[in-house]
Amino acid sequence: MLPARPLLHAAVFALAALQALASDTFIAAVYEHAVILPDATDEPVSPDDALALMNKNMDILEGAVKEAAQQGAHLLAPEDGIYGWRFTRETIYPYLEDIPDPAVDWIPCTDPTRFAPAPVQERLSCMARNNSIYVVANIGDKKSCNSSDPSCPSDGPYQYNTDVVFDLEGKLVARYHKYNLFRRENQFNYPKEPEAVTFETPFGKFGIFTCFDILFREPAVVLVSELQVDTVLFPTAWMNVLPFLTAIEFHSAWAMGMGVNLLSANTHYISLAMTGSGLFTPEGPAAYHYDSRTEEGRLLLAELSARPRLSPTYP
């Protein structure tokens, strides 16, 4: 985790479609992204400036999405991947969008003005639709607060660290508000109740949570033990400390202990020892990456079991 700094969890995943309606395996990919950070400021930037920074990061991530899709892969990109950190509650606001409940049946790529302004959701939706892949992103959600709500923040709306999922057509199919916020992640609010969000694909049942969530029963253990997911998507900003590659060792052990696939994409920021991503299975790592020397991003691919609980070698 990032110590003594507020985190903004912004990650992008993508899951490429298979030609068959169902498959015993799928090609998974994770992308460790060297995020372009905003300038440190005590004053909010304009919405146009906020979007300009996010588009720079999404340009890179879209390239990774296309490369993964060309290889028939399912892509996961890291936490902090769209706009980084360095935020207060006030300065994060221009980067947030109002993310509706997936029950609204919305494709931002083809109907961008329905819940406008939502340029980030529109672009992510189009990445999914144009490449026939699932795209999962960790971005920020803002919700107006009713004055009759005694929990209403004193300084404005609710602000949530949020995962969104877009399907092959670009439709919003899932939304998750992070429940276990890391220390000094003061730009966000806790949801009133923990959420356990899943979505079905032709290649198994997926669950979602972000970074610090992995250490708690809700949602991490609930997704595995009660909701029986096959694969967990996990964007993170995790610090590694030598001689132990903490992210790789811990995340691999978690996948083995829980008996599910864990697609872990770490932020690449070597001055804070942020590196260490992988595709982890109940039988051990299928692929992993650690690079503390360069500033380059990295795409990893591996073929995984879509339903590891049904494998004859399931632990």
Please describe the topology of this protein.
Blueprint (H helix, E strand, L loop, with lengths): L11 E5 L8 E8 L14 H24 L2 E4 L12 H4 L26 H13 L1 E11 L14 E9 L5 E6 L20 E4 L2 E5 L8 H9 L5 E6 L9 H13 L2 E6 L10 E5 L2 E6 L8 E8 L10
Helix pairs in contact: 1-3
What does this protein structure show overall?
- The model is unreliable at 1-12 and 16-21 (pLDDT under 50).
- The protein has 315 residues and is an alpha+beta fold.
- It is built from 5 helices and 13 strands.
- The relative contact order is 0.19.
- It has one domain: Nitrilase/N-carbamoyl-D-aminoacid amidohydrolase (4-Layer Sandwich).
- It has helices at 47-70, 89-92, 119-131, 217-225, 246-258, and strands at residues 12-16, 25-32, 73-76, 133-143, 158-166, 172-177, 198-201, 204-208, 231-236, 261-266, 277-281, 284-289, 298-305.
- A 7-stranded mixed beta sheet has the order 6-5-4-1-3-2-13. A 6-stranded mixed beta sheet has the order 7-8-9-10-11-12, covered by helices on one side.
- 20% of the residues lie in helices and 26% in strands.
- The longest helix has 24 residues, at 47-70.
Distance between the termini: 29 Å
Average pLDDT level: 88
Cα radius of gyration in angstroms:
18 Å
Strand order of the largest sheet: 6-5-4-1-3-2-13
Largest sheet: 7 strands, mixed
Order of helices and strands: EEHEHHEEEEEHEHEEEE
Number of strands: 13
Domain count: the total is 1
Helix content range: 10-25%
Number of helices: 5
What is the class in the CATH system? Answer: Alpha Beta
Strand content: 25-35%
CATH topology: Nitrilase/N-carbamoyl-D-aminoacid amidohydrolase
In CATH, what is the homologous superfamily?
Carbon-nitrogen hydrolase
Low-confidence stretches: 1-12, 16-21
GO molecular function, one term: pantetheine hydrolase activity
Signal peptide: 1-22
Keywords: Glycoprotein, Hydrolase, Signal
Domain CN hydrolase: 31-306
